Amino acid sequence: YGSDQWVLGNVISEDCLTINVGGSRDPRYNLSYIVSEAAEAGKPFIGVSFNYRLQAFGFLWGTAVKEAGVTNLGFRDQRLALHWVQENIAAFGGDATKVTIWGESAGARGVSYQLIAYGGRDDGLFRGAVMQSGSPVKYIPGAYTNASEWDVYYNNITAAANCSAAADTLACLRLVPVETLSAILNSSVASSASWGPAVDGDYIEDTGPALLSEGKFVRVPILLGTNNDEGTAFGKTGIDTTEEFFEYLVRAKGYDQAKANLLLELYPDIPEIGIPGTLHGRPGNDTSYGAMYKRVSAYAGDSTMHAPRRFMSEIWAANGLPSYSYRFNVLSAGISQYTGSTHFQEVAFVFYNLDGNGYNNSVATDPFLNKPDSYKQLARVMTRMWASFIVDQTPNNNGVTDVEWPQYSLDDPQNIVCDANVTDLAYIESDLFRAEAIAYMINNGV
């Protein structure tokens, strides 16, 4: 469901709760490549992927939804799929006691919400977790914690579906043909709504930061990380002055003036320390990125990705649990210097998709196209690290690099940096970039 599938011409169906053992319909997520490489490395595992309900079908919110107990359905779909694995994976030769859950972006967020579901209740569904560019910690104002605040969106949807007068508006919505409902959900009627986790007091008992801080999460080893230039995918373009940046923080992000002014100090107008790292100086005047592009992108990447990743790493370390943190810094084929090592770019590397299957279309380019062989070598290193973590709960039994990936610690926090332009393809760094700004975000929930 959604724009990716429409553009690629994939099948769209409300009958979407399917499970794939060993593959995926979307060739970009074909698990056979990493499974084959893992087996060759002596780290065999079975790859299972599954679909879950998206947009309003999976994350409708509001008073009526909460009272009916049908909140966070997309996450509940995921939970049921994990129960299916427990009940059935032995029939495929798998071991139900050795499950690792793994996701990227919204998938990583889904994984993270399995860690804190039902107040961190451990139902024995998994023993490890991998999260690429996603977490239950989102340092932006306006998290959905009050169902009544969402009712304006719910009421707009029910009105467009001619369900406002129904005694049971949810029951009425269920009778609307899916094509009609989908058209409503993708029209201006719902354009101001967003679809995501809701604090319902059941599946999600409190906000992600609160649950993690209170120790309400499943205690398993984790591997997590972000891409260097995540913010180019999430920041606003076209901001030319400090005053415009201030207005964006106050009006669009909801900060009070004091916090907005402090963020301006923490993210100064110094292009050399902004992102993307591939863009030197300011964008050209002939572009629409804006003079403050690197400054705004640094803030956006930290608030959506880097601060949450660092926060989770610190929580795991504080509780004496293994966590392995990475930073991916590669400019893939087809990606401009203005975008850099942005969101999603590591996926082909960890899936060992060396032929770029699924990428040669109107929306993507083979990440390895006309790139040096070091790109494919890095893919092998990353694939084997991930396989080692899945099988042995450490990425260091990979057999292809002497670079030891350290567990994250509070005394000496470190990341492994995956970089196709360095001799060893990976190196260790102190996790201290933009330390003051990110610490402020973590400590103040912004």
UniProtKB/TrEMBL annotation:
InterPro entries: AB_hydrolase_fold, CarbesteraseB, Carboxylesterase_B_AS, Type-B_Carboxylest/Lipase. GO terms for molecular function: hydrolase activity. It comes from the Eukaryota. It is an enzyme of class 3 (hydrolase). Its EC number is 3.1.1.-. Signal peptide: none annotated. Keywords: Hydrolase. Belongs to the type-B carboxylesterase/lipase family. This is Carboxylic ester hydrolase. It comes from Phytophthora fragariae.
